[in-house]
Write a structure and sequence with these properties.
flat; alpha+beta; 4-stranded mixed beta sheet; binds zinc ion; 10 strands; 19% strand
């Protein structure tokens, strides 16, 4: 019962019943080829790196590869493209050309951009979080290995008496540097990289919004506050007469209604809406 739930409702396996060869789009010579740590796909998360390890496949004598064997991974672009859009958008990562980014990271940047935090400061925050995660992992590693050493010593003193108790706790193995390619494999997500990712994410979201709006066959209205023009209107005493102008436009970008309002609470325009 629990297994059925995990397969069908959590992993959405029913949406991806078959993976086709990404070169020849066929199934004939396809077989599983185990797991590999080579060419892992890196994922830029909000607070640190993550790595996508996927299963390998081999298309024997692939017609799309001059009848030579073709090996590919489940996270290769050609396979990702086979995923239904519903499945891809439900993942908490978005694939890029060679890697992937976490959706929460994009939401974090987007939230900061819309609330006026400078992009430079936001990307600094992401870089700082990546280093903090590395330091925390390193500290955790040291504490864990020290604890294991103490436990080993306790065990040997139990079995061997005082001779075991005097045994030295071995030095924990080195955790390695931040960018160690054989170890932690950290990297610093640059400002230009994060800018590109955010723009791609926004474009993707825009496409979705446009698609949804195209499906609406009724009229739709959109409204927003503007503070600039209201700030120019002054009372005789020199104070502000209004806080903002609220404008409602129809689907042809024509102004349908406009209110001068004292605040942004919508209380004053409740009747009009
Ligand atoms: Zn093939």
């Amino acid at each position: 019962m629990a297994d059925d739930l995990a397969e069908d409702e959590v992993l959405y396996n029913d949406l991806v019943p078959i993976i086709y060869c990404s070169k020849c789009q066929q199934l004939n010579g396809l077989e599983g080829d185990g797991w590999t740590l080579a060419k892992v796909r890196r994922v830029c998360m909000l607070a640190g790196p993550a790595f996508l390890v996927s299963k390998c496949y081999r298309c024997n004598k692939c017609p799309g590869n001059n009848c030579k064997d073709y090996q590919f991974r489940a996270h290769d672009e050609g396979v990702i493209k086979q995923l239904p859009a519903a499945l891809e958008s439900s993942l908490n990562i978005r694939f890029t050309q060679h890697g992937a980014v976490e959706v929460s990271l994009m939401d974090f940047l987007l939230r900061n951009v819309s609330s006026g935090v400078s992009f430079a400061d936001s990307t600094d925050a992401v870089q700082e979080l990546h280093y903090i995660t590395y330091n925390r992992s390193k500290l955790g590693h040291l504490q864990y290995t020290a604890e294991r050493g103490r436990l080993a010593q306790k065990r040997s003193s139990f079995f061997m008496g005082s001779a075991g108790a005097s045994a030295q706790v071995p030095q924990p193995p080195d955790f390695g540097a931040y960018k160690d390619r054989q170890g932690y494999r950290g990297w610093v997500p640059s400002r230009s990289y994060l800018t590109r990712m955010l723009l791609a994410y926004l474009t993707e979201r825009l496409a979705w919004t446009k698609e949804r709006l195209a499906m609406v066959d009724e009229v739709y209205l959109r409204g927003d506050h503007t503070f600039r023009s209201a700030s120019k209107v002054k009372t005789a005493e020199g104070g502000k007469a209004y806080e903002a102008v609220y404008t409602v436009m129809n689907e042809f970008s024509q102004v349908a209604a406009q209110w001068m309002v004292g605040d942004t609470s919508f209380r004053e325009i409740e009747g009009g809406l």
